[in-house]
Design goal:
The structure is a homodimer of 134-residue chains.
Chain A: E1 5-11, H1 15-25, E2 29-30, E3 34-36, E4 41-47, E5 52-58, H2 66-71, E6 76-84, H3 87-96, E7 108-109, E8 115-119, E9 129-133
Parallel strand pairs in A: 1-5, 6-9
Antiparallel strand pairs in A: 1-6, 2-4, 3-4, 4-5, 7-8, 8-9
Chain lengths: 134, 134
């Protein structure tokens, strides 16, 4: 069911400093910051040859990553995103197996404009998993 | 400098249960457990089309991931591994920029039989980064 690892998301306390680290110290290809007001984050994409790292920084009052940064002031790996072909089929398989889908259980349009779901980290070894239909 | 994301490592409290989840619920290609006594871990590789997830479980008395599981009993994402062409050149660049290499600072032979280094997570947004020469 799951396909490619679309991205690894890292919440960071200082987006400019983190971008500079990946560009100058780690020598990666780092994009410009993109505000995603509907998702409460500003995102910087780091393009690797086989996948992406996404640096996440809170945007606005109700950012979904503010609580994570409050608990992890240095930042940390926030979630993994796996690609699926059919998000509804994936959701049905997961819920039939007893895995919990966060929120209403219905896919939402994610930061990349594609349908996504998030799975409860307690059901998956403390790992927040995003599934994205590609 | 950094190339492909070689793997994402997830420390898990129950290797059999985690393997079954990835195989049966997430429908991924999951390998057999491999003991790595020199590294204090038992590893299960999950092959994705573009990279790997490695499930890590403690092996022996001095496993480097036991402390992580003590702090995170449900498990969690433990580290990211990026590929580099020349581990010594990478080390020199990192230390010149003030980043801290864990341990002696000399590359060691990692679980895949290749030279690796780990970078201090406090220097990289709370993310433990492994560099592996490929």
């Amino acid at each position: 069911m799951i396909g490619r690892l679309n991205h690894v998301a890292i919440a960071v306390p200082d987006l400019k400093a983190a971008s500079a680290q990946y560009e100058q110290i780690l020598g990666a290809k780092v994009g410009a910051p993109q505000d995603e007001p509907d998702h409460g984050v500003t995102v910087v994409f780091i393009e690797l040859p086989n996948t992406k790292v996404e640096l996440l920084y809170p945007l606005g009052e109700d950012s979904p990553i503010q609580g994570f940064l409050d608990k992890n002031p240095s930042g940390g790996i926030h979630h993994l995103c796996f690609e699926v072909e059919d998000i509804h089929a994936a959701r049905d398989r997961l819920t039939a197996e007893g895995a919990r889908v966060l929120g209403s259980g219905e896919p939402k349009i994610g930061a990349h404009g594609k349908p996504v779901l998030f799975l409860h980290p307690k059901d998956f070894n403390g790992t927040l998993i995003e599934l994205e239909q590609v």
